[in-house]
Amino acid sequence: MNLKKEMNYARLLMNKTEVGQRVYQNHDKMMYIGGDNMRGLFQELDVNKEKSLVVCGSGDPGLEVAYQDFSQITCFDINLFARHMLHVKLAAIKALNYQEFCELFQTSLTKEWLDKISPYLPDATFLFFDNLFQLNSSKLPNLFTHNYSKHALYFFRKCQQNFSVYNEQEFSKLKSCLQTKKFQFLPLDIFQKEKVNSCLEKYDFIYLSNILFFASMPVADFMKNIFPIFYQSLRDDGVLVVNYFHSYMDELKEKRTFKNRLYQERNSLLYEQIKRYCNQEIILPASGFGHGTGGKDFVLAVKK
Ligand SMILES: C[S@@+](CC[C@H](N)C(=O)[O-])C[C@H]1O[C@@H](n2cnc3c(N)ncnc32)[C@H](O)[C@@H]1O
After folding, report:
1. Ligand 1 pocket, residue 79 CB under 6 Å
2. Does residue 237 come out as left (phi exceeding 0), alpha (psi in the -120 to 50 range) or beta?
3. How many angstroms does the Cα of residue 95 sit away from the middle of ligand 1?
C-alpha cells in the first residue's frame, strides 16, 4: 500500500471528529480496544485450536485466539488501517512490560510509545504513524475509536474481562508464546462474494463479531450468498460465530432500547434461517458483557 495514499486518507479521517456506528470503509478509523467478551466465549466453546479466521478490528480478537492456543491466526478486515492496529498491539506485547502495555492502551499512542515499540513494527506501520506525528500529533487520537482513556479505569476492567491480554498473567503467557504464532492480515469485505469465495481456506474457528449488525445486506441475501461460503470453510467440528449481540438484554428486561430491538429482529431472522440451513442446534452461549452497562451479550454460532 502506497504510504502517500494512506496519509491522505488518514489526514481526512483525523479532521473528522464524529464517531459512531455506521457503514465501515476500506480506509477508516481504527478501533483502539475491542469490545466483545471473547475471553468469556472461549470458556463456553469446545473447539480444535489450530487455524482461525477472526475480524481484525482492534487487534484484540487475534490476540485472544493466540492466547487461546490457536497457532495460525488470520485477521481479516474491510479497513486496511486495521492491520496497523494489529501490528501496534503485537509490537507492544513484544516491546513492553505489562504495566507499560496497560498504560499505552489506557491512554493514547504518542511518539514516545511509537519509538519504544518501533523495533518490532513493520516499516509500513512505523512510517504511517511517524509521518502522522510529524503532520499533526494533536489530531492523531482522532484516528482511533473505542479509546476509553476518558473513563480508563471503568473500561479497563471490562477490557480485562473481555480479552485475556489485559490481565497480567495472561499477558506474560502471550508474550512468551507469540514467536510461535503465525499472524496474517487479510483485506476482506465479507459481503463481497467473489473475494470471500476465492480467499478462504479451512478453519477451526471463524469469528465475524457483530459485523452483521452494521450490514446493509438483507439477512436473506447474506444467508443465500455469503453464509454458505463461511460454513463450508469450517473444518469438521469447527465453529463459526455468525453474530455477536452487545447488550442484548438490559438489566431491567422490560426496558428495551431501540438497539436491543434491532438486535432482536435480526437475531430471530438469522436464527430461523441458519437453523433451516444447518439443520442442527445452534449454540447461544450467554457471554457476560461487552460495551453495555449491566447488559448481557450473547453469541450466535454454528458448529460443523
Ligand atoms: C464489527 S467490529 C469488530 C471488532 C471486534 N469485535 C474487536 O473487538 O476489535 C469492527 C470491525 O469490523 C470491521 N468490518 C466492518 N464491516 C466489515 C465487513 N463488511 N467486512 C470486513 N470487516 C468489516 C471494521 O472495519 C472494524 O475494524
Report:
1. yes
2. left
3. 26
Question: Ligand 1: which atom is nearest the Cα of residue 33?
Answer: 9
Count of residues making up the chain: 304
Atom of ligand 1 nearest to the CA of 30: 27
Residue 66 CB–ligand 1 contact under 6 Å? no
Q: Write out the three cell numbers for 268.
A: 430471530
Q: What is the pLDDT along the chain (304 residues), one digit of tens a residue?
A: 689 999 998 988 888 766 554 556 889 999 999 989 999 899 888 899 999 999 999 999 999 999 999 999 999 999 999 999 999 999 999 999 999 999 999 989 999 999 999 999 999 999 999 999 998 888 888 899 877 665 666 678 888 989 999 999 999 999 999 999 999 999 999 999 999 999 999 999 999 999 988 788 888 999 999 999 999 999 999 999 998 887 666 555 545 566 666 667 777 888 888 988 888 777 776 666 555 555 677 788 999 8
pTM of the model: 0.93
- Contact yes or no for 295/302 (Cβ under 8 A): no
Separation of CA 188 and ligand 1 centre (Å): 10
CB atoms within 10 A of CB 168: 13
Is any atom of ligand 1 closer than 6 Å to the C-beta of 28?
Answer: yes
Q: Return all residues near 149 (Cβ < 8 A) that are at least 6 apart.
A: 106, 107, 108
The phi-psi region of residue 173 (left if phi > 0; otherwise alpha if psi is between -120 and 50; otherwise beta) is alpha
Q: Which distant-in-sequence residues (6+ apart) come within 8 Å of 71 by Cβ?
A: 49, 50, 51, 180, 181, 182
